[in-house]
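User: Predict structure, ligand flavin mononucleotide.
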Amino acid sequence: MRNRRGKNSREGGLSGTKILLVVTGGIAAYKSALLVRLLKCGGSEVRVVMSAAATEFVTPLTFEILSENPVSISMFARRERPVVEHVELSKWADRVVVAPATADIIAKAALGVADEIASTVLLSARAPVMFAPAMNEAMWANPAVRRNIETLVSDGKIILDPGSGALACGDVGPGRMAEPEDIVRALEASFAPGDLAGIRVLVTAGRTEEEIDPVRYITNRSSGRMGFAIAREARARGAHVTLVHGPVDVPAPRVDAIERVATAAEMKAAVTKAFARCDVCVMAAAVSDFTPVRRRAGKIKRAGKSFELELRSTEDILSSLGKRKEGRIVVGFALETENGEANATRKAREKGCDYMVLNAPGKKTGFSAPTNQITLFKERKKLFATPLISKDEAAVLILDAVAADGRLKRFRR
Ligand SMILES: Cc1cc2nc3c(=O)[nH]c(=O)nc-3n(C[C@H](O)[C@H](O)[C@H](O)COP(=O)(O)O)c2cc1C
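Assistant: Predicted complex:
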């Protein structure tokens, strides 16, 4: 596969980079010793700051020897040179990584508390900051932690989500710190400008729900997986991603802006607004084609042998965007049960789509499965058809085609 991170990516990753590692007080601190080894082997210079709690788990000596640098454990320690150490470290670093990141340091960073060396370094950081949270799964699920994580994301911090599995406390669930190798990969990616850097991508995902009465609605089987895979991949390639999604079965990826909607009309309003600020629009949502003419205020009672429900067509969002795209690149999805290729190319033409992704409903394809089989058209030309692949792989291939589109040049900022 092409190097989708673009020509400028540093082959081999981290050579010559300066990484400031902030270790806080969790069992996973022992994994950060390996992280330092990997960073040093990759050519990074590493300096380490430890919270007081972190020193209860691993000694500063371990990090001192591995990093080949003194370790900072106190804001007020006497130094050989008169320096304000937290400011000096913050200026020095190309990237700051908090690993493990306790619930406590996450809360302090979200609030802007600066009461000891670890939190003060984070508040004065000028470089991008990554957090690798590690904690018991109940702590990770706690609404206070969720709120603090959301705050950090909206402040532009990068969160490396913890993995799931057996935790040191004996519980099982999400909370295990990202593996050191994954943290290194995330750091490498952060230094490599992606091939969608500077491009604003709008992605829609999921289904819509059209209410019949207070308890019933019309919907479809879309899980949100395909759109989420595209949003995640676009962000990994450096795009600024706005995601508009309806009800879904899976957690949404971290993106730059997110709007949740329920009905086709809400989807239309949100997408129309976001479209004005995008360069590329990928419409992977399965928007209902029909909605009840009238929503009943009360629950419809069973009466007689049959019941007629009058539906009207919803507005065709893709068509309306295609008509006013003014140079933007629009990618549509077609889910067809018959005459797939003919219908997909006709739809692309009629709706003004630059690319059309054809997929078919099936047990392993289309709406709810984690896999898909896609055929991609650029206007009328068939670019490729895949075998059964994961939706993540399908997202890579779709964005490879978009990223190679010469028209993208004019949007790069
Ligand atoms: C044995 C033990 C293990 C702990 N593991 C974690 C952990 O994995 N994640 C976490 O958020 N807190 C953990 N804690 C609690 C933190 O150490 C505590 O909240 C501390 O105040 C964190 O300080 P710091 O954020 O300044 O490092 C643990 C405490 C103990 C005693």
